[in-house]
Structure formats: structure tokens, C-alpha cells
């Protein structure tokens, strides 16, 4: 796509935020006056900065290698002695960007960025800079706001050096001069340029300047810059004198559980709820700290509260809240959990080491989820194989027809192989014995009430099933050991899996054999045990081979990130129906198994979400009988339609209103 086409696309979508790509000549002078390292590109656009910067580094390295080769050859032509006068210096090797982060507002430009680029924020004005430590910052700000952006960067940026492309009239700005003086920062003008021959032409005359923070030339840990920037912000916001430390203790698990409870049966989208809860927590946090700072200093001293302690507590609380909500987003948003298992999400969370510095906003959720899904494509096959291997134990496998090897059991551990890494060419049975994820109370011997880990394990199974094309619906949770639990397919009474949890720590699972066929076929293909659909019949046991060819290459491998839906929209089932107001009758154009849950919830006005056990009983009634009465409504089945008859006009109107 040409730059003009890109600009037109940005304008059509109202995302042209004064987008003027930085020229190669401007970036050249920055390269010559920097030393690589970490970079935060604010208003990154098409990431020209990284592209050209690394091109200069590669060219410099190429020249260095040529000079070094000449130096090495001097040994041959100088009587066995090196000519050290022509030896290139280490500083001439070049310096590329080690880590590259961006802040970019345009979703169109975010989608076009490489998957290894990490976005730390979208809207510059709503993004905190204090908690984002980097070696260098580059910014080509909107020229209508360059003064405000430059001032804020000087005061708040947690960095050693700032490189700016700003109008040459910046020298007349009292705000910028005052910020430089107050922070004891130095500036150097690296050159004067224009955009007359740039990718997007303009008449603006600009200067490239380098701002060096006080003490940046000597060794100083970036955390110290963080302290300086945070101190300035804290002093200006809370106006508090120094006193003694205040300690706090962590309750992250409890807070996560409280948030998860609020997400259950939520009416709004989970993304909206999470951001609202985060904003509410941060607002409460700031209000509390402002209230503390408004107290008499002598009173604060009496109760053991000091300025330093308050600052430390605020930083920890704010950073902890931000990290906690990003973790919850990865674990709770269906856009991610439908595709990624808990282990894969953990890997991605650990890769995104700067995630705790990204402000938790609805706008920032989009680029973060975009980053996760871009990077997740490489994990889909791995997580499928990992899941398969975890279930592979002597009780659960059957060898290929051509596999004559004896699978030796471990002498020391129950239901494990002696050499698990050497076990290959087998299929998993659809009847599985696995370690139970359900916790049992050591005191009572009964199942615990809170089973977060077990729910996570079940969700991982459903994620694998989803990636193979099997959509999951209702799921039972056991109340006692040995109870038979059922998991149904989405909008169906067909069983996906049955399982029982036992006191000996095992869980017995019976999967739908079609799911297990798909799992066996895909993992066998990925591991190279089979190469074509015809191999399935030759190698698989007859029961597992029957009709399994259709699952060859079934695993989900790539997500079209450009189709990522709006996170503010709650996914609710649509209800297609005809209404007769005179007879107070609704006729839904779906069989009862697909629409009954929605019908019952609409009758309840969503005030009381239908429980799974109640829904199962209602489905069972319609399976065996013509219909039943629910809250003064008669619900009956009619071929592929479902009929609802009301006694009261108010109930009929409420149903129509909810459906609208």
C-alpha cells in the first residue's frame, strides 16, 4: 500500500492524527547521536524510526566487517605482523535497537505493525509515562500540540534521553524552557529539516533535538529516573511533606476472586466491566491517598504514616492493580480464552514483561489483545500437543497397528511410562483417566466450594475442543465425589464429555469419540506419525479410524486479527420470532434445544439468570413431553419451532422489550 493510500484510509476512518512520517535524514542524525538500546516510539505511525535506524546499524556493521577483514589480512602482507593503525574500533560496529515499544492511537496503523512490536498505550494524553523505563524516547508529535507533548515528556518521561522532531519555533516556548531548567536537562540541536520532499509533504520547518536528562551520562539505574519522575508527579498532585514508612500486605488472590465473581452472568461485556472496575478501584485509591495527604501531618506521624510510605504504597497498589487486571483480561475475555489454554496465556503473559506498565483502558485492550492473538498463532499446535502428552499414560493409550513395541510402565510412579519421551505412534482412547484438578478439603474430606483451578482445567479442555471445531455449551460441576457430571455441546443436548471425580485424586472422563478422533488425527499429523488421511485407516484402531479422515488438518491455526470484534459489545444470542399481540403468543423460529435458555432468561427479564440445573430439567421435559408451564407462561415445542403463550399482557410486553 502506498503512503497516499494509507493516508486516505486514515482520513476515511477519522484516524489521521497529524500523521507525517519521519524522514530518513532525520533518523540518520538521531542514529549518529545515540547508542541503540531500548526505545519507546511515541506516535510510531508506520514505525519508520525502527526500520531506518536498524538499516543504518546494518550498513555500519557491514562497513566494520570489511575494515576488520582488511585488518586481519594485514598479517599476510606485513611480515607476519598486524597493522594496528587500520584496526577498526569496537564503537564502529554499529548499534541496533534492542527492544522497541510504541504508543500509537490509530487502530489501522496498529494492525499493520509487526507482531514483535509491543504497544504500551494508545492515547498519549491518557498514558502514564512514569512507570515505563526505557533508555531512549523518540517522538515526532502533532505540531498543533508539540509544546504540551514536549513539556510533559521532559517532566514525566522515565528515560535518559529524548529525541524530538518539533517545529523550529520551539526555542520561543517558555513552557519548554522552564521544564528544561527545572529538571536540569540539557538539549542539543542535531539539525534542521523540512518535509518538502517527504513521504507526506508539508511546508513545516523542524529541528531534531536531543534532550539529555540530568546525570544520564554517568551510570545510573533507570529505576532512579523512575523515582525522580514519580517524585515530581507525586509532589505536584498530593503536596505532602516527608515522614516515616507505612507497610502494606498483599491480597491479590482475594481481589482477583472478587472481580471474577462480578463477571459471572454479567449483562455488559466483560471488557467494559473490567475497565470500569479498574477505574473505580484506581479512583478510590487516589481519593483515599488524597484524603490521607489532606490530614494534619502530626496526626499522620502519630499513626505511623509518612510521605515516603504513602508513595511506596501508592506505587505498589497502582502497579499491582494494573498487573492484576491485565492478568484477568487474559484469563477471562473469550476473545483469548476461546483460543488459548492457560499455559499458553502464561507464556504470552511472561513474554510481555512490560504489560504491567500499560494503562488498563478499553482503548488499550484492543492493541494488547491484538498483540496476543498475533503472537498466539505460533502456539496453537504446541498447546494441542502439550494437552495430548499430558493425557498420554499407560491406561489411556492404544498403539498403532504397525507399532509392535511394548510400552513399559514406570516401576516407581503409578500410571506413567518408564521412558515417556520414547513413546510414540499411538492414539488416545476416548475413555481417559487423569489427575483430578478438583481440590478436596483435608479437614472434611469433601470437595472444596471454590474450584478455580478445576474450572481452569475444564476451560483448557474446552479451548482445545473449540480449536478443533467442537463448540461447548452447558457444563456440570460436581458437588460430591463420584457424582456423574455432563458437558453438552453448544445449543444441543448432545454430550461432549462425562466425568467423575474420585477421592483417590483421579478424574475419569468419557469424551465424545468424534472429538477424540479429531484430537488423535491432528496430533498424529503434527508429530509426523501420519502424513496423509489414508494413513489413519492403516494405523488407527478400527473404532478410532472410522470416519476420522475428515479431521485431517482440523486444528485452528490462524486468526484474522483485522476482524477482531468490538470489545464493548456483549455476545448475546439472537432470538428470531413472530408475535401475536391479540393472542399473547410468541413463535420462535428455532428448536427448543437452541433457544430455551434465552427464552427463560427473557421471561425472567434477566433479573434472575436461569441456573444450569433448572435449564437441564426444562430441556428434559421438552424432550419427553409436549410442553410445560414456567412463571405463568406455557412453553411448547412445534417441529423446529418453539411456542410461548402468555397469560398477562405485561409479561408479553416485557418479553418483546427484552428481545428488542
In short:
With 660 residues, the protein is of the alpha+beta class. Helix content is 42%, strand content 16%.
Number of strand segments: 19
Shape: globular
How much of the sequence lies in strands comes to: 15-25%
CATH homologous superfamily descriptor of the largest domain: Vaccinia Virus protein VP39
Low-confidence stretches: 243-250, 568-572
Proper CATH architecture of the largest domain: 3-Layer(aba) Sandwich
If you average the pLDDT, what whole number results?
83
| Major beta sheet summary | 7 strands, mixed
How many H/I helices? Answer: 22
Protein structure class: alpha+beta
CATH class of the largest domain: Alpha Beta
In angstroms, what is the radius of gyration? 31 Å
For the record, the count of structural domains works out to 4
How far from one another are the termini?
Answer: 42 Å
Give me the CATH fold name of the largest domain.
Answer: Rossmann fold
Name the helicity range. Answer: 40-55%
Strand order of the largest sheet: 3-2-1-4-5-7-6
Structural summary, described in words:
- By secondary structure, the chain is an alpha+beta fold.
- The protein is 42% helix and 16% strand.
- It is built from 22 helices and 19 strands.
- Helix 5 (146-156) runs parallel beside helix 6, helix 9 (270-293) runs antiparallel to helix 11 (307-332) and helix 15 (380-391) crosses helix 17.
Amino acid at each position: 500500500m502506498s503512503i497516499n493510500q494509507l493516508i486516505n484510509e486514515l482520513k476515511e476512518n477519522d484516524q489521521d492524527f497529524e500523521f507525517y512520517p519521519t524522514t530518513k535524514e532525520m533518523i540518520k542524525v538521531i542514529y549518529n547521536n545515540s547508542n541503540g538500546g531500548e526505545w519507546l516510539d511515541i506516535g510510531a505511525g508506520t514505525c519508520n524510526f525502527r526500520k531506518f535506524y536498524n538499516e543504518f546499524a546494518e550498513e555500519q556493521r557491514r562497513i566494520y566487517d570489511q575494515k576488520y577483514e582488511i585488518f586481519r589480512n594485514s598479517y599476510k602482507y606485513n611480515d607476519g605482523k598486524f597493522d594496528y593503525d587500520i584496526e577498526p574500533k569496537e564503537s564502529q560496529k554499529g548499534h541496533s535497537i534492542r527492544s522497541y515499544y510504541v504508543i500509537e492511537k490509530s487502530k489501522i496503523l496498529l494492525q499493520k505493525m509487526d507482531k514483535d512490536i509491543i504497544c504500551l498505550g494508545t492515547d498519549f494524553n491518557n498514558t502514564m509515562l512514569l512507570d515505563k523505563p526505557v533508555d531512549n524516547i523518540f517522538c515526532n508529535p502533532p505540531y498543533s500540540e508539540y509544546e504540551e507533548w514536549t513539556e510533559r515528556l521532559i517532566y514525566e518521561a522515565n528515560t535518559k534521553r529524548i529525541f524530538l522532531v518539533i517545529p523550529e519555533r520551539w526555542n520561543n516556548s517558555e513552557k519548554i524552557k522552564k521544564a528544561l531548567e527545572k529538571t536540569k536537562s540539557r538539549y542539543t540541536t542535531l539539525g534542521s529539516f523540512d518535509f518538502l520532499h517527504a513521504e507526506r509533504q508539508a511546508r513545516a520547518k523542524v529541528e531534531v533535538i536531543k534532550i539529555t536528562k540530568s546525570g544520564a551520562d554517568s551510570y545510573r539505574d533507570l529505576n532512579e529516573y523512575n523515582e525522580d519522575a514519580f517524585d515530581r508527579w507525586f509532589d505536584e498532585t498530593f503536596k505532602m511533606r516527608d515522614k516515616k514508612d507505612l507497610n502494606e500486605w498483599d491480597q491479590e488472590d482475594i481481589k482477583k476472586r472478587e472481580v471474577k465473581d462480578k463477571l459471572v452472568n454479567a449483562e455488559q461485556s466483560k471488557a467494559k466491566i473490567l475497565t470500569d472496575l479498574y477505574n473505580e478501584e484506581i479512583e478510590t485509591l487516589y481519593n483515599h491517598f488524597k484524603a490521607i495527604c489532606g490530614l494534619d501531618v502530626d496526626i499522620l506521624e502519630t499513626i505511623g504514616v509518612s510521605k515516603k510510605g504513602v508513595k511506596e504504597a501508592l506505587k505498589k497498589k497502582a502497579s499491582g492493580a494494573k498487573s492484576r487486571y491485565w492478568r484477568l483480561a487474559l484469563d477471562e475475555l473469550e476473545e483469548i480464552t476461546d483460543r488459548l489454554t492457560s499455559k499458553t496465556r502464561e507464556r504470552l503473559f511472561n513474554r510481555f514483561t512490560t504489560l504491567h506498565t500499560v494503562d488498563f483502558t478499553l482503548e488499550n485492550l484492543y492493541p494488547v489483545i491484538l498483540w496476543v492473538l498475533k503472537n498466539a498463532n505460533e502456539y496453537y499446535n504446541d498447546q494441542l500437543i502439550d494437552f495430548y502428552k499430558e493425557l498420554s499414560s499407560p491406561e489411556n493409550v492404544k498403539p498403532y497397528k504397525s507399532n509392535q513395541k511394548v510400552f513399559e510402565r514406570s516401576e516407581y510412579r503409578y500410571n506413567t511410562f518408564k521412558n515417556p519421551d520414547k513413546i510414540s505412534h499411538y492414539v488416545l482412547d476416548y475413555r481417559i483417566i487423569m489427575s483430578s484438578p478438583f481440590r478436596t478439603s483435608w479437614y472434611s474430606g469433601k470437595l472444596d466450594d471454590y474450584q478455580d483451578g478445576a474450572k481452569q482445567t475444564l476451560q483448557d479442555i474446552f479451548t482445545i475442543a473449540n480449536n478443533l471445531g467442537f463448540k461447548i455449551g452447558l457444563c456440570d460441576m460436581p458437588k460430591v465425589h463420584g457424582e456423574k457430571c455432563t458437558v453438552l455441546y453448544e445449543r444441543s443436548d448432545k454430550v461432549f464429555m462425562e466425568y467423575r471425580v474420585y477421592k483417590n485424586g483421579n478424574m475419569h472422563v468419557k469424551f465424545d469419540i468424534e472429538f477424540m478422533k479429531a484430537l488423535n488425527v491432528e496430533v498424529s499429523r503434527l508429530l509426523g506419525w501420519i502424513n496423509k488421511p489414508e494413513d489413519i485407516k492403516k494405523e488407527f484402531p478400527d473404532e478410532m479410524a472410522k470416519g476420522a479422515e475428515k479431521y485431517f488438518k482440523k486444528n485452528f491455526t490462524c486468526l484474522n486479527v483485522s476482524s477482531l470484534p468490538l470489545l464493548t459489545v456483549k455476545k448475546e444470542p439472537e432470538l428470531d420470532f413472530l408475535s401475536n399481540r391479540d393472542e399473547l403468543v410468541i413463535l420462535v423460529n428455532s428448536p427448543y434445544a437452541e433457544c430455551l435458555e434465552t427464552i427463560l432468561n427473557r421471561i425472567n427479564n434477566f433479573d434472575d439468570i436461569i441456573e444450569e440445573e433448572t435449564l437441564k430439567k426444562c430441556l428434559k421435559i421438552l424432550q419427553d413431553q409436549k410442553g410445560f408451564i414456567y412463571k405463568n407462561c406455557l412453553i411448547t415445542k412445534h417441529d423446529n419451532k418453539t411456542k410461548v403463550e402468555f397469560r398477562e399482557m405485561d409479561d408479553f410486553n416485557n418479553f418483546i422489550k427484552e428481545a428488542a
